[in-house]
Design the sequence.
């Protein structure tokens, strides 16, 4: 179980895995995620289910190898088995016929946009996709977005593909041009989601963000994913991950995320790549196995 049946690097340090998980494939809905653990002393971390094939009993995951755990996951191969894989978790996305929807992804944040965009399209909405990344080689899933959306805009920070600038620049231009926008979905780095919220707030455009703060158990037991929404404490793992962007306290969220930056940096410094992400017993004396990692 949890066998990796296919893997490919779709952008620098960004990977697409197809994993055998029949029960999750059968039950998952748009917006839900799984929690993984790669080795016995490793942390638990969430990844959105991008797609599933109930007949084949597989799910599709896309992630960027940025921290210790995701780097170890990226070292696995076809035929390897992920130690723990739990899900589907979180509340499914509320899908309705809103009208004209703008779905925005920053970097590998485009991956969780895909299943939601597909569900919105199936509900009869017109979909405009905005796919942003730092540079052309980091733009992912464009073809899949073009299959779903009525229109797709590409933007890169350096101008190497599409519009030069941020996803918010494209959205702002749409607003200034008077285009009808009934619903906005934004998924990506926290500063990007906050910027989208501030851009749509004055125009009262319904805006939803998917929060991916530090999650540990994914069941609401640990409280590691606390966020403030409309002045109330919410657990992103069980009451989200999606919330009204205009009600999220982004300043508090960003401060909470920065609490672990020192430990994350230390974990990256101590990480030593191996051909497979084995545990401490397979690598006696290995720092990355002896120390608990603190960043995905």
Sequence:
């Amino acid at each position: 179980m949890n066998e990796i049946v296919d893997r490919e690097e779709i952008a620098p340090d960004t990977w697409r895995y197809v994993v055998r998980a029949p029960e999750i494939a059968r039950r998952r809905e748009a917006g839900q995620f799984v929690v993984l653990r790669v080795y016995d002393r490793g942390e638990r971390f969430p990844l959105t289910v991008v797609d599933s094939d109930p007949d084949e009993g597989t799910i599709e995951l896309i992630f960027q190898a940025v921290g210790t755990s995701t780097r170890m996951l990226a070292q696995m191969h076809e035929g390897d088995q992920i130690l723990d894989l739990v899900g589907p978790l979180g509340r499914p996305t509320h899908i309705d016929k809103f009208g004209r929807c703008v779905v925005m992804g920053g970097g590998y944040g485009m991956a969780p946009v895909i299943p939601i965009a597909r569900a919105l399209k199936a509900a009869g909405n017109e979909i405009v996709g905005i796919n942003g990344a730092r540079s052309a080689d980091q733009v992912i899933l464009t073809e899949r977005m073009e299959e779903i959306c009525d229109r797709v805009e590409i933007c890169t920070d350096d101008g190497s593909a599409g519009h030069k600038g941020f996803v918010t620049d494209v959205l702002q231009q749409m607003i200034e041009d008077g285009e009808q926008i009934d619903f906005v979905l934004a998924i990506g780095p926290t500063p990007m989601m906050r910027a989208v919220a501030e851009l749509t707030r004055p125009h009262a455009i319904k805006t939803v963000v998917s929060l991916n703060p530090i999650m540990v158990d994914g069941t609401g037991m640990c409280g590691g994913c606390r966020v403030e929404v409309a002045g109330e404490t919410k657990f992103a793992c069980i009451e989200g991950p999606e919330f009204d962007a205009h009600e999220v306290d982004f300043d508090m969220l960003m401060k909470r995320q920065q609490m672990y930056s020192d430990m994350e940096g230390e974990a990256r410094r101590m990480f030593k790549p191996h051909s497979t992400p084995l545990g401490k017993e397979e690598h006696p004396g290995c720092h990355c196995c002896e120390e608990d990692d603190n960043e995905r």
User: Anything to note?
Assistant: The domain at 4-89+261-290 is CATH 2.40.30.10 (Elongation Factor Tu (Ef-tu); domain 3).
